[in-house]
């Protein structure tokens, strides 16, 4: 009756092994490290950079526990903070010869001390949030009206081009706030303009205003299109912030939308507020120029060469100099989209650009006049410009769609598209809230949270053992397994643990034990009714399950609501809360029943169970069930 088949015990054993493996990294702590990442959008951290870092550490006599290229950055681990600081100075001198123009960011960081075999299994510790590790918190207000105004400004240029192409005569086009006014000479031209706008620009709406013999049409963006513009601006800013914050070497930055027009940025481990502000406020602009391919320009590319008048020297990605003309053909303001793709004929990776009407017209004229010549696309950051790519113009390019190619890998095409699309902010932002949390306060929060979970667990287990005897011990073991599974799942998900998350852990322990209390009391009730111990155990688990399921589902619904509609600390609490409910249902019912079956299931003539004192409902004498 009370026996599990072998496959159920196999599930329990496998779950326990996985729980132990993915919980272990949280006990190894963190090692001081130096992280090297790209300081510019066009600079790549590769194996060559890794060799320079290793050579710099060797020359400085600093022994690193490990130096590895991880993702897009290099991390060197050390046994002490003294070696970490020495290594940072040595690496900075080797990689950043010109402090005014840093190509790399060398940052102090902390990385897990987990052994290689755990890392190979992708077992990593949970990230610590701002309140546990310390760092800086910013609340940014996005100027949505500026984003809409910028869109209307672009529409103004598009309308001029469309009316000119269709030979619709007008008395002038001007932007008035977030609307565009078009003066037309007669009703026929007015109707032609309305039909054109309706067919070509579906996001716009028009309104006629008669002024004597002249007709005036007011063009505005439809409300649903305006919302899309503002949502896109917010997403663009979040993407751009992610790009910029990579420079700081933050282990797990939090960049998320709050409300309709605000962005929360949390940088755990960062104490330099000025540096963080500099990164967040960084500007990047895009320019398209023609390459000077004259003999003088080729000579100027050599060391010591004199740059011809009207040109400038910039570096390509590979470090080769390139002479480009000062005249700017297009800017990033004319670019509406950039997406990676593949050439239809050669299947080589390319970047597909989309220009607005003004940019398309200019690009068509320039490409027609410069077939066979090179065109350079430059990205300017902090006043320094670098060549992203310099393709050859094969033919006249019209329609506002441009394809950039030239021996790029798929990764380079993705990176280039991202740079061109998210090189600058889509709308201005202002810091409206700023907080700094010191590491000492974070350590204090960790200690308090750890103590609350530990003492809560010990008191609950002690009470259960006293009140329910052996069944209380089973409940305590199941509660420990629940905590093991909870930490393991959070680690597997690479969740960020915050102080509200630790509070949710403590709450999850208290709620998880409710299921065992229901089971134990149900078993006691069956024993009071004179049922045999084996039958009482079976009935106790079966009949308590419906109540446990209902109570946990209703609590889970509340947790999901917090997760869906909450933000910041509330979401952190909700994540741990929901996962804790799911793990408690497994451990309190499935796992604890496995323990009970293992202990009592093999006894055919079981006369009593250790579940504390069973009181008769009539108020008679007590019966010892153990």
Any overview of this molecule?
- Forms a complex with SecF. Part of the essential Sec protein translocation apparatus which comprises SecA, SecYEG and auxiliary proteins SecDF-YajC and YidC.
- Its main location: membrane.
- It comes from Limnohabitans lacus.
- Keywords: Cell membrane, Membrane, Protein transport, Translocation, Transmembrane, Transmembrane helix, Transport.
- Belongs to the SecD/SecF family. SecD subfamily.
- With about 625 residues, the protein is α+β, with helices and mostly antiparallel strands.
- It is about 50% helix and about 25% strand.
- The chain contains 16 helices and 25 strands.
- Strands 2-3-1-4 form a 4-stranded antiparallel β-sheet, with helices on one face. Strands 11-12-6-22 form a 4-stranded antiparallel β-sheet.
- Strand 24 (about 615) and strand 25 form a beta hairpin.
- The protein is globular and about 100 Å long.
- About 35% of the residues are buried.
- Mean pLDDT is about 80; it is low at about 620-625.
Low-confidence stretches: 619-624
Rg, Å, rounded: 33 Å
Instruction: Count every helix, treating DSSP H or I runs of 4 or more residues as helices.
Output: 16
For the secondary structure, the number of strands is 25
The biggest sheet, with number of strands, parallel, antiparallel or mixed sense and barrel status, is: 4 strands, antiparallel
Q: How far apart are the first and last residues' alpha carbons, in Å?
A: 20 Å
* Outline: globular
Helix content: 40-55%
Mean pLDDT value: 81
Strand order in the largest sheet: 2-3-1-4
Class computed from helices, strands and strand pairing: alpha+beta
Assembly level: single chain
Strand content: 15-25%
Domain SecD export protein N-terminal TM: 1-107
Keywords: Cell membrane, Membrane, Protein transport, Translocation, Transmembrane, Transmembrane helix, Transport
Transmembrane segments: 453-470, 477-495, 544-566, 572-596
Domain Protein translocase subunit SecDF P1: 234-293
